[in-house]
Amino acid sequence: MATLTVPPVLSSPRDDAMHLYKAFKGLGCDSSAVINILAHRNSSQRALIENEYKLMYSEELSKRLSSELSGNLKKAVLLWMPDPARRDAMILRDALTTNIDLKAATEVICSRTPSQLQHLKQLYHALYGVYLEHAVQAQTSGDHGQLLLAYLSTPRSEGLEVDRTMVDYDAKSLFKAGEKRLGTDEKTFRVIFSSRSRAHIAAVSSAYHSTYGSTLKKAVKGETSGHFEHALVTILQCAENPGKYFAKVLHRAMKGLGTNDTTLIRVIVTRVEIDMQYIKAEYHKKHRKSLNDAVHSETSGHYRTFLLALLGPNHH
User: Quick check: pTM over 0.90?
Assistant: First the structure.
């Protein structure tokens, strides 16, 4: 595999902007140069490059990228440019208005922390003049819609402390609401999953297993279905191990015939600056092959080069 020649990040945002402009000039675009710069700049560096580019050339860098690049490379680069909260807002705007994708919307909402969601809600409203809750309400229904709305609006602690009595009480309530009865009391699942902290949900899951001998995830899958099930499983797995959850999402996107590039791009781009090392470790643990190798065999061209540059060195 070719190794990328990375320009040292000693280059200033201004130099980067000039090099990008050069890459756009002439016939065709020097995609390798664009990738070499942008894939190796963090969120604040990318913002500085965008500012410099606009100052120097009186045009938006993202507009220029949009006209110079195409296909999956264009999708990935344009999603990579903004900071995480703005990026999430863009993904949700698209998934809730243009290309309706409730799976993507559910994944993003249910896998983010309370502070990430807070920031995202403010930004969504600032960018689009609509409340995220209203956008969600317009596209969802039933238990799924109610769970997402509750998840967006209920404050949850991000601390690690849990109340054992509450944990045992919730485990029992979930057992009574699902496996113990005929039919399912969805409201109990909704309330507990939308209002408890990650640490608490993880503790409930482990209490459930030790008390009832089966896993809470199995109970969720047996008692619910569709988007509601997906939302509950996402909340549960991200409480226990987000790296493992996203490794599974990536594996599914690449498994079988064809690759779900939208998912591949969304997950890689949104997690690179958050927990990609954990995702790579979990992927390797489960599939005995590195995430880099899997992405390498499912993609090609500059698109492949860009994703691999984001993933970084191929450590197991």
Answer: yes
